[in-house]
Amino acid sequence: MRVHYLRSTAADAVSGGSEKRNSRLEAAWKTLDPTVMTVDELLLFHERVGQMLCTKLQSLSSKVRLDQEKLQAHLSKLRSGLVTVNEAEPEPEAAAKPARRPYPTVYPKYRSLRNPSLTWAGRGKQPRWLLAEMKDGKTLNDFLIDKPTSKRRKAR
């Protein structure tokens, strides 16, 4: 009973985190069985966890302090008029984001027989104009746009 209580409170303490963190916690609890440990081992484990928490909190507070100093410096530049809001430095995370790969243009494959300006590339849900015209007895092949074959294809 006591082990179950310890496991549930530890999982509740991390519930604000991601699923990955929760699964890591569960894996650690599976390898660690406090019911088998002696009192000395439990105290030593408690000390080590306390030390790890202190170092993590110190590193986190130093990061917060550095960010706060950067923001204060930037705010003082804004207040003094040296920098305008439009000239503000971009976020480092936004600048580090990789560029999205270019996707090829998707050309239309189907054209409406009633209104030739209506086209569809054949991806996603069928458009309403296509469904309405297909109700008249037409098939999807009737709306295909004829592609001129390239010179390479003819040569082969």
Any overview of this molecule?
The protein has 156 residues and is an all-alpha fold. Helices cover 53% and strands 3% of the residues. Strands 1-2 form a two-stranded antiparallel ribbon. A hairpin with a 7-residue loop joins strand 1 (110-111) and strand 2. The protein is flat and about 85 Å long. The model is unreliable at 1-16 (pLDDT under 50).
| Helix-strand category | mainly alpha
Q: Reading side by side through the largest sheet, how are the strands ordered? A: 1-2
Kindly report the average pLDDT value: 78
Total of DSSP H or I helical runs spanning 4+ residues: 6
Note the gap between the termini.
77 Å
Low-confidence stretches: 1-16
Q: Per the principal axes of the C-alpha atoms, what is the gross shape?
A: flat
H/E topology pattern: HHHHEEHH
Strand content: under 5%
Radius of gyration: 32 Å
State the main characteristics.
mainly alpha, two-stranded antiparallel sheet, 156 residues, disordered N terminus
